[in-house]
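Submission sheet (multi-component)
Chains listed below:
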Amino acid sequence: MTSIMVLNGPNLGRLGSREPDIYGSQTLADIEQGLHKALPTDITLDFRQSDDEATLIGWLHEAADSRTPVIFNPAAFTHYSYALRDACQIVAETGTPLIEVHLSNPHARESFRHTSVISGAARGVIAGFGDQSYHLALSHILTLLERH
Ligand code: DQA
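Outcome: structure written.
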């Protein structure tokens, strides 16, 4: 069965109560549930969250080894984690799609959020559409999978 990984970085486990004016009132579990509803029955979603950089790197290595497409919200690591960038590059080198997503539009926020060290290793970036950022990424990956 084909699987898609959805990886979420630090503090995203606090969605629902964390800065709802920016991130909305949905919890991460709500987002996961919404994505499950949009999935064809022959595709599984492997939805994970960690506040720990090393754990996220391990999951990206797993995605590279198993050629599992990734939807990735690196959260604050977006802006400074070269280690995660390198791990995303390892995924990219296998030809496996990795899409960077953000709930908010970091370019419309504080200047430190205007830089993503991840984007150059991502197939594409979707930001600013709340949970729809995840849905748009999922829709693209499903299109890619149908082409194979
Ligand atoms: C975020 C944007 C980041 O700047 C921030 O650190 C997050 C969430 C987003 O989804 O909008 O934690 O990745």
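Remark: Residues 103 and 131 are 6 Å apart (CA to CA).
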